[in-house]
UniProtKB/TrEMBL annotation:
GO-annotated cellular components: cytosol
UniProt xrefs under PANTHER family: 42-9-9 PROTEIN-RELATED, THIOREDOXIN DOMAIN-CONTAINING PROTEIN 17
Gene: LOC118266698
Protein name: Thioredoxin domain-containing protein 17
InterPro entries: Thioredoxin-like_sf, TXNDC17-like, TXNDC17_dom
Length: 127
């Protein structure tokens, strides 16, 4: 049992990836964050706070899942009301960071992503 990690950049990579997702297999989770700056950290302060908590949690998780880090772009791209991550009916993002269970209703948004107890509930719901 292990967590399979993947990183996607921008909406087109995300769209291509979900178009090719198999119907069966381990659950897929998407973690939407702001694009990384040259220092390797997101421009989004809430994403910076959530990422180490999420990564530490995933390192301890004993489940077979696919966990996909999705870069939603730079601040200008994200703040645009027409940003495809905001308008896509499958994601409907209002804030970053956001973690969603693909083809599920569960999601964590904003500061919720940095709370271990909420991560626990999100990943346990799949059992």
């Amino acid at each position: 049992m292990e967590v399979n990690h993947l990183t996607l950049h921008e909406y087109d990579e995300f769209k291509t990836y979900i178009a090719n997702l198999p119907e069966t297999g381990p659950p897929v989770y998407f973690f939407f964050t702001g694009q990384k700056k040259e220092n390797g950290r997101s421009w989004c302060i809430y994403c910076q706070m959530a990422e180490p908590v999420v990564k530490a949690y995933l390192n301890e998780l004993k489940k077979e899942i696919t966990f996909v880090f999705v870069d939603v772009g730079n601040p200008e791209t994200w703040r645009n009301k027409a940003c495809p991550f905001r308008t896509d009916s499958r994601t409907r993002l209002m804030v970053i960071p956001t973690i969603i269970v693909w083809n599920g209703v569960q999601r964590l948004e904003g500061s919720q992503c940095a709370k271990r107890e909420l991560l626990n509930m999100l990943f346990e719901d799949e059992d």
